[in-house]
Design a protein that fits this description.
The complex is a heterodimer of chains A (573) and B (163).
Chain A: E1 3-8, E2 18-25, E3 28-36, H1 42-46, H2 54-58, H3 66-81, H4 87-113, H5 120-123, H6 128-138, H7 146-162, H8 166-169, H9 182-202, H10 204-210, H11 237-265, E4 282-284, E5 304-306, E6 325-328, E7 343-344, E8 376-379, H12 388-397, H13 401-414, H14 424-454, E9 474-483, E10 486-495, E11 498-505, H15 507-512, H16 523-528, H17 540-548, E12 570-572
Antiparallel strand pairs in A: 1-2, 1-12, 2-3, 4-5, 6-7, 6-8, 9-10, 10-11
Chain B: H1 6-11, E1 18-23, H2 33-42, E2 50-56, H3 63-68, E3 71-78, E4 87-90, H4 109-118, E5 124-131, H5 145-162
Parallel strand pairs in B: 1-2, 1-3, 3-5
Antiparallel strand pairs in B: 4-5
The chains are: A alpha+beta (573), B alpha/beta (163).
């Protein structure tokens, strides 16, 4: 038996630092361990502060998800003290969150994930005429002439030959698991460049409504922008026109570039509809409220859990119930007062460091003991996958028609069974499909905002319960959101107007965590098992599955890499 | 507010502006020194053609404002083994010319810099790299005394740069 241990450290093209160790027997992964350097500790900084300021700190926890951490934070305070935000505030928050989703998912697809499937060097041998023909057959996107693709190919040649650009220098080019014809590779590379240009436009929505970007402003009780159609410094007609144009362009990009590319690439990788699954349970907190945060039946993404891959039933989740969500640290570098086997609801959460790991450089993690900075969250002691796939599965099972239609249509077009959803391909496809839905919702939220404003409602903030003197002496709240990467919740305990405890349970915690005390694996470790590895020196297959989750370890991560390495440090031990 | 002003920002035209961009994570103590310097400069009276932005840990979202500026003065922390608080003024061309351990988000600043080449709109970048010690366990909002005491000198050098 040829048993090898493959170490991928760091897993690149992601924020932060993630290490994956996989045991490979006869070309198949039989066991896997995921370790992250995501140190918790924001909790310690927030203790004793004014709860109304927490959003400004929490959104610094992550460089890509800034707005969702701010949103989860204002929601948790509003939940604790009992504030309902005005209609316009709900719509503007939805617009900002939807804009983040669309930008983030497009950047994930083209700039973080595509190069796992697209061979840049192969694109150099493409026939631009054929690429042009393919492009015109799948989309009305205007930039599809032979001359355009010829020009892209020439530019690409310069980049690759210069060897100066890290983005194109470190791929597994020529790997035998790369299956696209050169012409589709060229199409994808062209759109990699187009997506770079486009993504900088859509984020302007954050600057318009949030005053600045990155790190736009949020406010407990509403949104910190005033609406006055005729006032220079407010959200006025001109700014609303800008937003309208940005949304129209976003719809065009998603519908004419992202989705057609996804559907052009997927048929070459249908085998990945049977790889990278393995998770039984899927959690979605739900998001995009349309009639208030407490009216969960008004959410665009419904709240719920799928157990045992059973799409006939949606199980209820209550994050406030101390028996449902608990975090474990048996394999994480922390200690609890109640010992290593205990699980704590986030309201009772503790953050005390207890690093027992090896000093770098080292060959292997001690996986029998503690091996990660990530805690292990569980719902009723079950491991949950979170993210786009969970959202689509819960909505599908809950009977949301537009989700059922788009999922069924995609399965039919790819000619794959429903079971193919539980896979790496399913995860990547779910991200695209939800983007198509969300960009449509984005337009709807915006139209509703304009209608509301034109009808004379310009309220964006409620000052009722702004003053801590109007709050209960002690109270607790949960701010649940669906971040682009999955279920995100902030948990707060307030005493005498100050933060007594604050815990963030972020999506990557659910997916990338180490084993729990009973030995159950979380999503990354589960999904890698059974994956074929064609070339142990180029473990492209590991990256495909890990990247399909869109890992984000920047939530309080150490941001440096001691060797400054931007290549996969592959060791066969 | 030339670059971020929604009207100017929408036009995507090159503006005769110097962008001072502080990068870093203020939750990670000295790693956030770039943002601290930006906040400090924001309280000074600066010429009209200068705009100071707290870039935080934002990466690709900074593409637009950097492209539209005439010149970018970037301030970031680096873990390069030098004494904490050491200031280096660099004029890197490619991402590989930047210090190895400069705010090393994997999809981060360096990929952003590569992106300028891909889009054929490379701004003129002057980098002030501030040496910091390897980060301690956990989070902190406080700068170390070595790095904190270097701030007046960094600010001074940048003010001379834009004179």
């Amino acid at each position: 038996m040829a048993t090898k241990r493959i170490v991928v450290d760091p897993v690149t093209r992601i924020e932060g630092h993630l290490r994956v160790e996989a045991v490979v027997e006869n070309g198949i992964i039989t066991d896997a361990f995921s370790s992250g350097t995501m140190v918790r500790g924001l909790e310690i900084i927030l203790k004793g502060r004014d709860p109304r300021d927490a959003w400004a700190f929490t959104q610094r926890a992550c460089g890509v998800c800034t707005t969702v951490h701010a949103l989860a934070s204002v929601r948790t305070v509003e939940d604790a003290v009992g504030i309902s935000v005005p209609k316009n505030a709900e719509l503007i928050r939805n617009i900002m969150e939807a804009a983040l989703y669309v930008q983030d998912h497009v950047v994930h697809f083209y700039h973080l994930h595509a190069l796992d499937w697209v061979d840049v060097v192969s694109a150099l041998s493409a026939d631009p005429k054929e690429t042009s023909r393919i492009a015109q057959s799948i989309s009305h996107w205007p930039k599809s002439s032979v001359g355009y693709f010829k020009d892209v190919a020439t530019r690409l040649k310069t980049f690759v030959e210069s060897g100066q650009l890290g983005i194109f220098a470190n791929g597994y080019w020529g790997h035998k698991a790369m299956k696209l014809p050169p012409e589709i590779n060229l199409l994808a590379v062209a759109h990699y460049l187009e997506a770079l240009e486009w993504q900088k436009e859509i984020v302007k929505i954050h600057a318009i409504f949030g005053g600045k970007n990155p790190h736009p402003n949020y406010l407990v009780g509403g949104v910190p922008c005033s609406i006055n159609l005729n006032e220079v410094n407010a959200i006025n007609s001109e700014r609303l026109n800008h937003v309208s144009k940005l949304i129209t362009d976003a719809m065009q990009f998603v519908n004419q570039v992202y989705i057609p590319d996804l559907m052009a690439i997927a048929p070459y990788y249908k085998d990945w509809g049977a790889i990278g699954g393995g998770m039984e349970n899927f959690l979605c907190y739900g998001d995009f409220p349309t009639h208030g945060y407490n009216q969960t039946d008004s959410f665009k993404f419904p709240r719920g859990i799928i157990l045992g891959q059973n799409l006939n039933e949606v199980v209820e989740v209550d994050a406030r119930d101390p028996q449902q969500i608990k975090e474990y640290i048996k394999h994480s570098w922390y200690k609890y007062g109640a010992g290593d086997e205990a699980g704590l609801h986030p309201w009772e959460g503790e953050t005390e460091f207890n690093f027992t790991g090896p000093k770098p450089p080292f060959d292997q993690l001690d996986v029998q003991n503690k091996y990660s900075w990530i805690k292990t969250p569980r719902w009723k002691d079950k491991a949950m996958e979170v993210g786009p796939l969970s959202r689509m599965l819960v909505a599908y099972a809950a009977g949301v028609t537009e989700v059922q239609d788009i999922v069924n249509d995609t399965l039919a077009r790819l000619n794959v069974p429903v079971g193919a959803l539980f896979s790496t391909l399913g995860r990547t496809a779910a991200r695209g499909l939800e983007t198509k839905l969300i960009v449509g919702w984005l337009k709807g939220f915006f139209d509703d905002l304009v209608t509301n404003v034109k009808a004379g409602d310009t309220t964006t903030f409620t000052k009722e319960k702004w003053e801590p003197s109007s709050w209960p002496q002690s109270c607790e709240g949960v701010g649940m959101t669906e971040a682009p990467r999955g279920a995100l919740a902030h948990f707060i305990k307030i005493n005498s107007g100050k933060i007594e405890n604050y815990q963030l349970v972020v999506p990557t915690t659910w997916n990338a965590s180490p084993r729990d005390p009973s030995g159950q694996k979380s999503a990354y470790e589960t999904a890698l098992i059974g994956t074929p590895i064609a070339d142990k020196d180029m473990p492209l297959e590991i990256l495909r599955t890990i990247h399909s989750f869109d890992p984000c370890l920047a939530c309080s991560v150490h941001l440096y890499d001691p060797d400054g390495k931007h290549i996969h440090d592959i060791k066969v031990v | 507010m030339l670059l971020l002003n929604p009207e100017g920002y929408m036009q995507n035209t090159k503006i005769n502006t110097t962008l001072i961009l502080g990068i870093g994570n203020t939750l990670l103590a000295d790693e956030g020194v770039g943002v601290h310097v930006a906040n400090y400069l924001n309280q000074k009276k600066l010429p009209d053609f200068v705009e100071v932005v707290d870039g935080g840990t934002g990466s690709f979202v900074l593409l637009g404002i950097m492209q539209n500026a005439d010149r970018v003065i970037l301030i970031d922390a680096t873990i390069d083994g030098e004494k904490p608080g050491t200031i280096k003024r660099l004029t890197p061309k490619f991402s590989k010319d930047y210090p190895k351990t400069l705010t090393a988000h994997d999809i981060g600043l360096k990929d952003l810099l590569d992106a300028f080449y891909l889009l054929d709109t490379v701004p003129k970048v002057i980098l002030y790299a501030i040496s910091i010690a390897p980060l301690a366990e956990g989070l902190s909002l406080e700068l170390s005394s070595e790095v904190e005491s270097a701030i007046p000198e960094i600010v001074d050098q940048i003010l001379k740069e834009i004179e």
